Amino acid sequence: MNNRRLLPFIILGVIALFVLMGISSSIFYTINATQRAVVFYKFGQGLDKDDVIQPGVHMKSPWNDVFVYDVQETSQDENMDVLDKSGLSIKVDVTVRFKPIADKIGYIYEKFNLAYVNVLVVPEVRSTVRQVMGRYTAEEIYSTKRAEVEATIKSESEKILLANNVDMVALLIRSIHLPDQIRIAIENKLQQQQEALAYQFRLDKEKSEAERKRIAAEGEARANNIVNSSLSDKLLKMRGIEATLELSKSPNAKVVVVGSGKDGMPLILGNN
């Protein structure tokens, strides 16, 4: 009898369990470490832009919507045909690295929904690449000002994206493809410039070496003039006498003839 009374409660409990399991995905949601989310309250305040949901397990009403954003750095590759300053067609491969500003994803969703990459990032970067490269010649883009072109594209794109709460980390020009005849002409010109620089370097080096030798020769000549001007007959005689006295003190057998040398200098004769 007691079991019959409990049976309706058991059935209701089982039904409630199945219902709860069925709607649990609408009530509980998980935000990973590299994600952030905002909630849209259908019967309340609408999109809560400033309340950004942090990583973890959360609850919501089944009728509210959760919009999840990946906030880690990501990249997008773009292959483009652009025109240089002269109207020459150039193919460029560009990589842009970016991430949404985590605490501003509500504002990103309000303007671009979840498709901000295709709606904002890609069009703005492609437009900026075309505008900037249109200010330079193919030769400048390909060789002499490639770094400047890259930095300018990043700077101008960064301003637009940052104004829309997206942080541009980097922009890289991976490759530039020119028509073969233009590329060969530019490479030949660069080679000639390198050869001219190398030749000028050798000339400057030879000029520097010649100047060094001239200065050394002038210094040696001045030193000789100083020595020659300081020598006199009396000084030479005195140095000769001093040398004779020093030699006479040695133990070797010798004969000293005073006044028999040139200019009256003593001669030292000996067999050792």
From TrEMBL:
<feature type="domain" description="Band 7">
    <location>
        <begin position="26"/>
        <end position="190"/>
    </location>
</feature>
<keyword id="KW-0812">Transmembrane</keyword>
<dbReference type="GO" id="GO:0016020">
    <property type="term" value="C:membrane"/>
</dbReference>
<dbReference type="InterPro" id="IPR000163">
    <property type="entry name" value="Prohibitin"/>
</dbReference>
<dbReference type="GO" id="GO:0007005">
    <property type="term" value="P:mitochondrion organization"/>
</dbReference>
<dbReference type="InterPro" id="IPR001107">
    <property type="entry name" value="Band_7"/>
</dbReference>
<dbReference type="Pfam" id="PF01145">
    <property type="entry name" value="Band_7"/>
</dbReference>
<keyword id="KW-1133">Transmembrane helix</keyword>
<keyword id="KW-0472">Membrane</keyword>
<dbReference type="InterPro" id="IPR036013">
    <property type="entry name" value="Band_7/SPFH_dom_sf"/>
</dbReference>
<feature type="transmembrane region" description="Helical">
    <location>
        <begin position="7"/>
        <end position="29"/>
    </location>
</feature>
<protein>
    <submittedName>
        <fullName>Prohibitin family protein</fullName>
    </submittedName>
</protein>
